[in-house]
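Issue 218. Parser rejects a valid record. Input:
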Amino acid sequence: MFAANDLMAIGALRTLREAGRRVPEDVAVVGFDDIEAAAYTAPALTSVRSPMADQATATVRLLLSLIEGGPKDPVVMPNELVIRESS
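Output the parser choked on:
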């Protein structure tokens, strides 16, 4: 399963364990954010790492461009899949 963020994925790990499901044997779990705690869950959480500061900068630049009547060009940011034991 893919959770919207790592905290939700950590909750999913706990709920799956309580339901008797094995991760990743029965269900693979992936989060998004790559918070520090992701490496310390049991099993360690696979997560998508995104450059948050770069995303914030790009978002503000796009907003300023839109306010000034500029183009609505999409911005694609790089992401990295940090593979750990949960997938």
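Fixed in the parser; the record now loads. The chain has a mean pLDDT of 95.
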